[in-house]
Amino acid sequence: MIGSLRGRIASKTPPQLTVEVGGLGYELEAPMSTFFHLPAVGEEVRLLTHLVIREDAHVLYGFASEEERRLFRSLIKVSGVGPKIALALLSGISVAAFAECIQREDIAALTRVPGVGRKTAERLIVEMRDRLAPAGTAGAGPAAGGVTAQSEAYDALVALGYRPAEATRLLKAAGPGTHSTEELIRRALQGAARESNP
User: Fold this and answer.
1) pLDDT band at residue 137, thresholds of 50, 70 and 90?
2) Cα separation of 90 and 96, whole Å?
3) Do the bridges between strand 16-21 and strand 44-53 make them parallel or antiparallel, or are there none, so unpaired?
4) Cα-flanking dihedrals φ and ψ of residue 145, to 5°?
5) Are 116 and 153 in contact (CB under 8 A)?
6) Domain ranges within the chain, ordered by starting residue
7) What would the pLDDT profile of 36-56 be if each residue is shown by its tens digit?
8) What is the 3-state secondary structure (H, E, C) of the chain?
9) Where does 66-196 sit in CATH, by number?
10) CATH entry, 4-63, from 3.40.50.1220, 3.40.50.300, 2.40.50.140, 2.60.40.10
């Protein structure tokens, strides 16, 4: 997996750009929120990336911040939301504003984003509510969008196959207090093991 790129911007045509790294030109797609902060063509840039492998193409997506990439990765796990809609959401709404929309169940704001219909907006609210919750439980507040041990542990549990609601419950059961990401994951998995082997 390509995690990040540092190189010179060879071209910019929203939402696509080319970054030249050691003689290789990497084509990326990026949300407008990232484009707004890009330096001029010819300048050096560092972008966090996510590679999506499809049958007909390998598409590399670039992000200015970890919060944007984290939200993108969460969005594409929602059924019916592909990279194109995720990119549109990140282009039309900030990470903090998106978290607020989910908390307020603001369907109207979500459906203003191109490609997001009412059913997709409702699905986003149901599925993303649990995914955004851990950031708030660590005291950062859901709108802060910061990377916390809670949210990292949550992402790890979902990656291991736990449903969002189940991951949230296991992390709450892991107990309050300040723990590292690894410690939270360990406690949550121990709790899950105890539940399956009472």
Assistant:
1) very low
2) 11
3) unpaired
4) 65, 15
5) no
6) 4-63, 66-196
7) 889 999 999 999 999 998 889
8) CCCEEEEEEEEEECCEEEEEECCEEEEEECCHHHHCCCCCCCCEEEEEEEEEECCCCEEEEEECCHHHHHHHHHHCCCCCCCHHHHHHHHHHCCHHHHHHHHHHCCHHHHHCCCCCCHHHHHHHHHHHHHHHHHHHHCCCCCCCCCCCHHHHHHHHHHHCCCCHHHHHHHHHHCCCCCCCHHHHHHHHHHHHHHHHCC
9) 1.10.150.20
10) 2.40.50.140
0.90 exceeded by pTM: no
Q: Which two tokens stand for residue 90?
A: 């990140």
Min mean pLDDT across 124-128, 158-162, 189-193 is at 158-162
